[in-house]
Amino acid sequence: MVLSSINARLVTIPLGAGRGGSGATQVEVILVEIVSNDGIVGTGFSYALTGGGSAIKKIIEDMLAPLVIGQQEIRWEMIWYQIWDKTHRLGRGVALPALSALDIAIWDLRGKKQGKPLYELLGAHKEKIQIYGSGRATHGMSIEQLIEGAISYQEEGYKAIKLRAGALGINNDLARIKAVREHVPSLQMMIDCNERFNYTDALWFGKHLEQLDIYWMEEPLISDDVEGHRRLAEQLKLSIAVGEHLQGRFEFVQYLQKGAATVCQPDAPLVGGISEWRRIATIAEGFGVVVSPHFLPELHVHLAASTVNCVSIEHFPLINDILGETLTIEAGYAVPPQRPGHGIIWDWEKIKHFE
């Protein structure tokens, strides 16, 4: 199967007052279509929350597409490493998302060629995967709104939720988390700190979170501070989760070798695609560390269902506005679609609207 053409689009989706903890008010989705010589179309994507999407699109069009067009799909592993080497001096922040979009499209193409859903193509371990609620908690919400969001997730059958911290001061954050915990005592809870604490505050905060039976504290420090995370992991009983700001397996290895993380959160559209995501998960398994991918449950449900050490995926409505169909969720578990490839149905009219 020859890779005949590549088309890249830049789609800007407004997020209103912002979702999650980054404060982003829009997401730029870089959507790629790879067409084979027999007319099969694979779609892949990456995204940017703080701008720069046009740079990712430009790299795909000017630098990566010439390396891919005319090549055999079966040689993708070799092509992947050629792109990795060629873009190394650019740094990973723009180059890896560009490579990720192509890689996801290739895997979608493969699934469609073989008539198999992606999770079966990758080797299914599970028919469903736990999904935790993350899309109904922002720094701008009142305590009442946070409680309402948590209860709504519980009523829908979710077994776990995630809240945000780090923007309102540790005492206010703690009070908000305590209030939610009182209303949903049976839910597993995780706290995303969005890299906003220093070590001293993170340690204090983590010890108080332990008293509330919090499963993990996510990115308490800036992700470059591997040693700080190691010290926290050593001092705290709760799990330390990192990954959404890490680029490729070698950055994850630094955390794993130092015992600085007990939950890894690779994001396939950012780390190098499905191929690199799977390498990261395998390395984490070797260290006895679990994986719970960041964002994009529509794609990650397949990776989670085919990865033995993946414990959950994240419900977060980042790209719902350009989807023709959302992920099936039943009693707190996500079910991978049975359509060939990744099975994501795009709403092309909405995509044209947001281009």
CATH class category label of the largest domain: Alpha Beta
As a percent range, the share of helical residues equals: 40-55%
If classified by CATH, what would the architecture of the largest domain be? Alpha-Beta Barrel
| Cα shape | globular
Strand order of the largest sheet: 5-6-7-8-9-10
The proportion of residues in beta strands is 15-25%
**What is the N-to-C succession of helices and strands?**
EEEHHHHEHEHEHEHEHEHHEHEEEH
Nearest-angstrom radius of gyration? 20 Å
CATH-defined fold name of the largest domain: TIM Barrel
Distance separating the two termini: 30 Å
* Name of the CATH superfamily of the largest domain: Enolase-like C-terminal domain
Class per helix and strand makeup: alpha/beta
Oligomer: single chain
Mean pLDDT score: 96
For the sheet with most strands, the description reads: 6 strands, parallel
How does the SSE layout of this entry go?
Layout lengths: L2 E12 L11 E11 L4 E8 L4 H16 L7 H11 L5 H23 L3 H4 L7 E5 L9 H13 L4 E5 L5 H14 L4 E5 L6 H12 L3 E5 L7 H10 L3 E4 L6 H10 L4 E2 L3 H4 L1 H14 L3 E2 L5 H9 L7 E3 L12 E3 L2 E3 L12 H7 L1
Parallel strand pairs: 4-11, 5-6, 6-7, 7-8, 8-9, 9-10
Antiparallel strand pairs: 1-2, 2-3, 4-13, 12-13
Helix pairs in contact: 1-3, 2-3, 3-11, 5-6, 7-8, 9-11
